[in-house]
Amino acid sequence: MRSPRVPEMATQEVQPNETLTHLKTESDTLKTKLEEERAKLHDVELHQVAEKVDGLGQFIMKTRRTLKGHGNKVLCMDWCKDKRRIVSSSQDGKVIVWDAFTTNKEHAVTMPCTWVMACAYAPSGCAVACGGLDNKCSVYPLSLDKNENLAAKKKSVAMHTNYLSACSFTNSDMQILTSSGDGTCALWDVESGQLLQSFHGHAADVLCLDLAPSETGNTFVSGGCDKKANVWDMRSGQCIQSFETHESDINSVRYYPSGDAFASGSDDATCRLYDLRADREVAIYSKESIIFGVSSVDFSLSGRLLFGGYNDYTINVWDVLKGTRVSILFGHENRVSTLRVSPDGTAFCTGSWDHTLRVWA
Amino acid sequence: MMSSKAQSSNNLAHARRTVQQLRIEASIERIKVSKASADLMNYCSEHARNDPLLMGIPASDNPFKDKKPCNIL
């Protein structure tokens, strides 16, 4: 029995090129309309509105802890909600859990792959997730028994068709969001390993993601090698907003604490701020003297400061509202690859290709 | 090698998705940058005093700034 013909298919076979041209025209018209709509509301610059805000004074931030123990480049780190534990992952395949107050190592796991590019702490503090060149995201429950072999309890959750670039638990230990070199993001159920939703739209590797603050609802932002930052609806899998102003790969994205904006860091040596309700870029954080890429960004608790880790080994601290740099921090002896502010905002941690992590305050 | 029919149907599917995506993006409601900026500034000022890295808190209140612990013999 012949399968029913879909009417569109009939049109396709008869005049495929005409339909394609029509779609291309509509696509161009929509793009122009988008730009016009955005431009209509561009009545002022953020830094102009911020002129009336007091300037920031001098900042004295120093390395307060150095975490040594990785045998190769540190690629990723995350804080535990208890504000003192940190998980970090490295090119040598090791994932270490540290007590940042004492600098003691509490757990160590050796992954079966090198380049563990992503790691995350579970909200409960009872597990960590990690992955990289193995194309997977695995969850390791943390045992109170220091002698227990963590690798034995490992649970494979996510499977991509290329490297895992980032992972994050949602607001519970039950779901994980991942991004991959395969160009997609995905939401997984930890217990069953089931794929709950996938997110298609990036035209190249997705390098980073960040979940919106829980009060703002079910969205997340991702950044990729296609120079785009996309905002997604987690339930429908739909891309709801897309921003393409960077001139190179976007290595890091982070929501502003109110959830109304997000910052990005790129290989084009700039950080940028995008406001979601204005639907446009509202600030660029750059200097002629800064020519190396930004690997990671994060906000201080109030959103006034933006910390950026750079490939020139430094950390630049920016006044988010005025757009000026307020501090430059030295200490790492190689690229800063990862940077996160602690949950209570008392410090931030950086990881570097110099094999160490530093806690700054 | 894809047949030219399969190739053109791929291009068509991709073009259709692009148009659908653009329709969604074009239809969202937007606010003026002046309003968005004011809101960002308000959030910063409301939360500034609770931002330790911004305010700089004394060593006694910051666990990372504490002095070396004393050993009680």
Q: Which fold name is given in CATH as the topology of chain A?
A: Methylamine Dehydrogenase, Chain H
Quote the distance from N terminus to C terminus of chain B.
79 Å
| Parts with pLDDT < 50 across at least 5 consecutive residues of chain A | 1-14
Question: How much beta of chain A, percentage-wise?
Answer: 35-45%
Unreliable stretches covering 5 or more consecutive residues of chain B: none
With strands numbered from the N-terminus, the spatial order across the biggest sheet of chain A is 1-28-27-26
Tally of helical runs of chain A: 3
Average pLDDT number of chain A: 93
Main traits of this protein?
heterodimer; A: 361 residues; mainly beta; Methylamine Dehydrogenase, Chain H; four-stranded antiparallel sheet; 28 strands; globular; disordered N terminus; B: 73 residues; mainly alpha; 0% strand; WD repeat (chain A); WD40/YVTN_repeat-like_dom_sf (chain A); transducer (chain A); WD40_repeat_CS (chain A); WD40_repeat_dom_sf (chain A)
Overview of this protein structure:
The complex is a heterodimer of chains A (361) and B (73). Chain A is mainly beta. Chain A has helices at residues 7-14, 16-40, 46-49, and strands at 63-67, 74-79, 85-90, 94-99, 104-110, 118-121, 127-131, 136-141, 155-159, 164-169, 175-180, 185-189, 195-199, 206-211, 219-224, 229-233, 239-243, 250-255, 261-266, 271-275, 280-285, 294-299, 305-310, 315-319, 325-329, 336-341, 348-352, 357-360. Chain A has a single domain (46-360), classed as Methylamine Dehydrogenase, Chain H (7 Propeller). The longest helix of chain A is centred in the first third of the chain and has 25 residues, at 16-40. Residues 1-14 of chain A have low confidence and may be disordered. Chain B has 73 residues and is an all-alpha fold. Chain B has helices spanning 4-26, 33-47, 52-55. The chains are: A mainly beta (361), B mainly alpha (73). Chains A and B meet through helix 2 and strand 17 of A and helix 1, helix 2 and helix 3 of B. Chain A: WD repeats lie at residues 67-108, 157-198, 199-242, 243-284, 294-328, 329-361. Chain A: One of its GO terms (biological process) is signal transduction. Chain A: Belongs to the WD repeat G protein beta family.
